[in-house]
Write a structure and sequence with these properties.
Chains A, B: This is Geranylgeranyl diphosphate synthase. Chains A, B: GO terms for molecular function: geranylgeranyl diphosphate synthase activity; metal ion binding. Chains A, B: Pathway: Isoprenoid biosynthesis; geranylgeranyl diphosphate biosynthesis; geranylgeranyl diphosphate from farnesyl diphosphate and isopentenyl diphosphate: step 1/1. Chains A, B: It catalyses: isopentenyl diphosphate + (2E,6E)-farnesyl diphosphate = (2E,6E,10E)-geranylgeranyl diphosphate + diphosphate. Chains A, B: Keywords: Carotenoid biosynthesis, Chlorophyll biosynthesis, Isoprene biosynthesis, Magnesium, Metal-binding, Photosynthesis, Transferase. The structure is a homodimer of 289-residue chains. The radius of gyration of chain A is 19 Å and the shape is globular. By secondary structure, the first copy, chain A, is mainly alpha-helical. Chain A has a two-stranded antiparallel ribbon with strand order 1-2. Chain A is built from 15 helices and 2 strands. Helix content of chain A is 70%, strand content 1%. In chain A, a hairpin with a 2-residue loop joins β1 and β2. Chain A has 2 domains: 143 residues, Farnesyl Diphosphate Synthase; 102 residues. In chain A, α3 packs antiparallel against α14 and α4 runs antiparallel to α9. At the A-B interface, α2, α6, α7 and α8 of A face α2, α6, α7 and α8 of B.
Amino acid sequence: MGLSDRIETAISRALAEAGGGPRRLTSALDYAVTPGGARIRPTILLSVARACGDDRPEVSNAAAAALEFIHCASLVHDDLPAFDDADYRRGKPSVHVAFSEPLAVLTGDSLIVLAFETLARAASDTPDRACALTLTLARQTGTPGGICAGQAWESEPRIDLSAYHRAKTGALFVAATRMGAIAAGQEPDPWDELGARIGEAFQVADDLRDAVCSSDELGKPAGQDDLHARPSAVAEFGVTGAVRHLDDILAGAIASIPSCPGEAELAGMVRAYADRIVPQAARRTVPGE
Amino acid sequence: MGLSDRIETAISRALAEAGGGPRRLTSALDYAVTPGGARIRPTILLSVARACGDDRPEVSNAAAAALEFIHCASLVHDDLPAFDDADYRRGKPSVHVAFSEPLAVLTGDSLIVLAFETLARAASDTPDRACALTLTLARQTGTPGGICAGQAWESEPRIDLSAYHRAKTGALFVAATRMGAIAAGQEPDPWDELGARIGEAFQVADDLRDAVCSSDELGKPAGQDDLHARPSAVAEFGVTGAVRHLDDILAGAIASIPSCPGEAELAGMVRAYADRIVPQAARRTVPGE
């Protein structure tokens, strides 16, 4: 089974376990999670698990679903009127628009809970891995270093910009690489750097898209960083410099991959990821490309 | 150390682990959790753990803190403008009033995450208990049968009233008794009925308070069930009937306590709890009391 099928199957199974309650909440959970976006985080998780031998695929599948549930929960809550007040997500009305604001809050809450439930359920015969997975996912989700903290930096009078990006964008990528290793019974620490660098690359790619893509291409207003004078890699290095910076980060990511049976395949995955996340319009501005 | 000290110490330790991030979120977490209310759920949890031998107090303490974090998270989210729009809680401004709506959403989210993190961290040398605790807490928190589902019933066109009360009020009491047993290494299923009946009693007591206490005594508007023609034990049985019904439920709760070393002490705790939750004004209306 390919990674994508493994992810969708694990997600469907976990969602089925959450069914049978109040119908609108059940529908809202399904709506928030499927059809998905690129499933980048669970794909990285399973790629790392595979590179590490993946001796318990039912554990890595559950970890992949759990990580995606946390990501989807964060999107649902971030779209709320109190945060981004975003009416659309993935080409359809956001959860609070399609259902209601109370149901959007409860959908996010339920998805966070379902993530930890999925880990505990799947890992019942390897409880040590389940505990380690729970601890890692919780740290990268909550506070002080997870995505909740990342979002909360926006409510501070003074932002620690590096902590902000590390927590808001980087945390779930670090969760992805660490959880892939843990699910396969390996030590997670050597995998931190790969996750952190992929997260950094993702942030730079996001800055590039905001600068060089049209609003139509993005499906949301473009040029926001420039308009609001936000710090961004493009503001710091220019488009050409930002593309080179991103390439450097990904080269560092590949160099950081710990020695393991699936090392070469994983490096190939990171390279393919790089090609996908850099907007073509940005590559075209770089001399010699 | 008394139960109350054990609970407050466990809560403080877990909160300290969540410190060091964005300061306003850290403050909001602390504000939402301390000073607490009666800490009824963690007290029941530790009482059951003690009745079962409590051979791993660090595990039952962590479970007690985790359960209280989920309860506090639910209060913070329930108070939001999209739900009850409550400006006050426990005699002080609610979290979204004192901080902001974004921080209230993130406080609830972070507390849910911290609950599972606390379980995983404390039970690292008994990972099987940690997994069982995680599974029980998740089921009683999420959907289909947990407090998220309970709240979501209010968004349904037709309410299943028994599922609603069981999920909204009962779920965390069932979590309390089950988690107390699991933390002490015992089978949780025999403890379900005690939790369910205490939850039922709590609901009836709440109905009684709404009917017989003044708004000043409640710290919120009284007489709401009657005003909104809500189904309640008082509407069904009258005040005297509701007090007798509550006494019957608690007698059933005591009778359901599984045979264990601390059975008598636990029965005494439930009796004391009964005296505390029934408003004096309601007892005075019952002939012969």
